[in-house]
Amino acid sequence: MRLANPGLEEWMTDEGNPDGLTYIFPREHDVIVGGTADEGSWDTEIDPATEAAILERALKLVPELANQPLVGRACGLRPARPSISLERLTVDGVPVITAYGHGGAGVTLSWGTAERVVELAAADED
To answer: DSSP letters of 25-77?
Structure first.
């Protein structure tokens, strides 16, 4: 879910919570609050009980989120692989760089992945 941002600037994750994965990613105007890690689940419907549990876990980590307006809701799939696909290919003579399979860790891994994509793209210019 997306809540209004009460001024948070630092993100946090709690992957070891026995009640479930929790993450809080502040952005300029809102805060992304999640999550789930249900491997093999392809359900794209929002489950109110799951949403309530996520919010409860998030509020324990960041009480400042209490009473913040709900800005948006979404339910996304997080395809994952044993390791990400990050490579340079040539398809029909066109260079293509793959960067997928991060699962729910896409945001946390994005900086390193982006750096590697730049390296792979620069190699094409050599």
So the answer is: EE-SSEEEEE----TT----S--HHHHHHHHHHHHHH-GGGTTPPEEE-----
Q: In this structure, are residues 6 and 65 in contact, taking their beta carbons and an 8 Å threshold?
A: yes
Q: Compute the distance between CA of residue 47 and CA of residue 34 in angstroms, rounded to an integer.
A: 12
CATH number of 2-72: 3.30.9.10
Half-sphere exposure of 33 (CA within 13 A, CB side): 31
- Total-model pTM: 0.70
pLDDT digits (tens, 9 = 90+) for 10-19: 999 888 889 9
Q: Are strands 12-14 and 94-102 parallel, antiparallel or unpaired?
A: unpaired
What residue type is assigned to position 29 of the chain?
A: H
